[in-house]
Amino acid sequence: MRITALSIICAGMMSSAALGAEIEIRRVSFENEGATLAGALYLPADHREGEKRAGVIVTGAWTAIKEQMPGRYAREMAERGFIALAFDYRGWGQSAGAVRFKEDPAAKTSDIAAAAAFMASLPEVDASRINGLGICASAGYTTAAATGNPNLASIALVAPWLHNRQLVEEIYGGAEGVAKLIDTSRKAEEAERQGRPQVITAASSTDQSALMYQIPYYTETNRGLIREYDNRFNLATWEPWLTYDAVSLAAKLDKPALIVHSENAAVPAGAHAFFADVPGKKSEIWLDGVSQFDFYDGAKPVKIAADAAAAHFNETASEPASPAMEDHAEIVARITDIAAGADRHQWDRVRRAFADEVTLDYTSLWGGSATKQPADKVIADWSAFLPGFDETLHLVTNSAITAVTGTTATAKADFQATHRIDKDLWVLAGHYRYELTKVDGDWKISGLTMTYTDERGDRGMAARAAERARTRN
To answer: Considering only CA atoms, which of 268, 241, 242, 238 is closest in space to residue 169?
Structure first.
């Protein structure tokens, strides 16, 4: 769903009872993996002792500390009635950490999860209504931390930097440029192990060797170049950063998501691809002519983004919960039963995964139309030709539940199916869409649509396999 900025502003203003009032800031700390992390807790001016409020964990762009854009947005969220936490990741700002100034997606994701657990323990916070607001690079970290995490209810991503391998190569000088940076990273990692961290200046208006040379915000003393800013960058960052696929995280996200972005800001293509793959409730706002750095501290973009996030968090607080973990596990198990059962010729296992009647749609490959037939006939058809291959391997990945309503559900997954006869291979890749129904308390697959996107080898091998299977019988 695409939402207009005006409607979000109005909704945000309605939730801004404390707008413009005095905000209380408390210095807090919490632990993660043996390190103490420093944070600042922003409480609404009208908060009263004993009252529980919804919470927001605000995280910022790469190399950022809590006093920069995280603190700005934390204050904005407190003004809109939320208790907000901005904190320094391990190795940054006032937080401890043996390795300093390294942009490590896995470590930062872990820190956000720890921050959510910390917030859930606070008497001032409604533990069922803790949200994540990720800005720029931390959009990916926030997504990963929220997925499958009961301590995070919803996420908002502001000016999200979301890249995958293709985008990384486009941004960082092609495959050759990426390879050089990864080589630099590995050498820096080895030097770090020897006690010689390879650290450079993060931002400078005069030093051309800085990571961000003459880049706005970070090089401006009235904006990001504040006294507290580390302004350092560990060269060991490059490999974990460049090999991080934030776009792929969308398919597994099980929380409502909002994106606020602009085509004039960073990596809009990544945000579009990410949004398309989010399976559940989602909304987006695209602003005209707003730069990446405007989102960090520009009065109007920040207000629009904060209003949008507040409206999103308030709206999704009343939404039905995501699929129960047991439902999720059972649906994924049924998907696996079909793929693995067919490869291993465990036909009873495949039959148990199906409802009594199944609609199969393989029209993208064979043409014709979808057919609804008894599951026993599907098993009979499959068992009549699949054993004619010397080997089949159906790899099903990125399974995601797209909807659960009462006793029905839909899900999707990516696949690669390899079929072998002697040395000949027929390989398909693409996507499955599943329709499921709950029968006597158990999820069963009642519909299966296959859409192939790539094919190698001869599909005539299917007929050869069927003939071989008949001959063997």
So the answer is: 242
What SS3 class is residue 22?
coil
Among residues 471, 357, 360, 219, which one has the least CA distance to residue 211? 219
Tens digit of pLDDT for each residue in 302-345? 999 999 999 999 998 865 545 566 788 889 999 999 999 999 99
Helix (H) or strand (E) holding 10: helix 5-14
**SS3 of residue 345 by DSSP:** coil
Indicate the residue type of 299: A
The pTM score is 0.68
Strand partners, 285: 260
155 contacts 146 by C-beta, under 8 angstroms:
yes
CA 409 – CA 444 distance, rounded (Å): 10
What residues does 401 pair with on adjacent strands?
Answer: 411
Q: Distance from first CA to last CA of the chain, Å, rounded? A: 54
Report yes or no: 390 and 405 within 8 Å, Cβ to Cβ: no
Strand bridging mode 83-87 / 53-59: parallel
Q: What is the side-by-side strand order in the sheet with 408-421? A: 371-374, 354-361, 442-456, 424-439, 408-421, 391-405
Q: Which of 381, 390, 386, 376 is nearest to 348 (CA)?
A: 376
Handedness of CA 121, 126, 129, 132 (dihedral sign): negative
Contact 325, 161 (CB under 8 A): no
Beta-bridge mates of residue 409 = 404, 436
Number of Cβ within 10 Å of residue 463's Cβ equals 12
